[in-house]
């Protein structure tokens, strides 16, 4: 939101503090890792998509993760042999991993292990630049498209950034491929869930590779009842969303009820 209350997409980036890159001691780490393993066994073709030829960049991802385990005082991770190095890397952390690298002079998504997508489909994104990945998001290109591209182009190894996104969804399911527009409508905001994505961006130490990570948290929307300021703030944010972005977020039918619920 801008100062006058009009909606505009924001970069919302913050510098990552040392040893705060990945959430290695997250309270839901164990259950999210178990779910990742189950999902990878059940439907690997949807959740792991890799272009050939980027194994060495993915091996750098493993090295960064190993370094982060050491920085956070955790025992070194054991990467499963025989898997693509990005797949093996993604199985030791709760975060989903998206690796970008240069193809024909353009930074594109070359490999992803994404078990917990928030209504998007990895196969539709691999091989595409960040601007094309964001094409379904109304207003994003106009508001910050150029800034995203120049920020990513200027990323330097060793200095990472994080940002967050939120969604309100009718389910607490973690694995949600598909599209936002497919969301079913629920009867009452009490049945809704508040989902946040903690996203990070880092340049790999060698070459042009960039790693994007996504960590998911889901809580009942009713949790806002316990904090009237947070609740009022979320209501204001929802009210500021223009119709195309409300539709993208699957909130066209329910947003008025949600705002009323948050203010009651
Ligand atoms: C500074 C960098 C970035 C910014 C500011 C940004 C911002 C956003 C925003 C505002 C949305 C809409 C989400 C919502 O409110 O529901 C979005 C969606 C998304 N972003 Fe980003 N993003 C960034 C980088 C990336 C990168 C590097 C990837 C790489 C995979 C990515 C993948 C996605 C995907 C897959 C979606 C969902 C698109 C869809 O619905 O099809 N983003 N992003």
Output mean pLDDT: 95
Largest sheet: 7 strands, antiparallel
> How many beta-strand elements?
7
In spatial order, strands of the major sheet run 1-5-6-7-3-4-2
List the uncertain runs: none
Query: Helix fraction?
Result: 25-40%
**How many distinct folded domains?**
1
Rg of Cα set: 19 Å
> N-to-C terminal Cα separation, in Å?
22 Å
Strand content: 15-25%
How does the overall form come out from the CA principal axes?
globular
Total count of helical runs of at least 4 residues: 9
Question: Given the helix and strand composition, which structural class is it?
Answer: alpha+beta
Bound molecules: protoporphyrin IX containing FE
SSE pattern: EHHEHHEEHHEEEHHH
Furnish the topology, listing elements before pairings.
Layout: E1 14-15, H1 29-42, H2 44-47, E2 48-50, H3 55-71, H4 85-90, E3 96-103, E4 106-113, H5 130-133, H6 140-154, E5 161-169, E6 193-203, E7 210-220, H7 228-240, H8 243-248, H9 255-263
Antiparallel strand pairs: 1-5, 2-4, 3-4, 3-7, 5-6, 6-7
Helix pairs in contact: 7-9
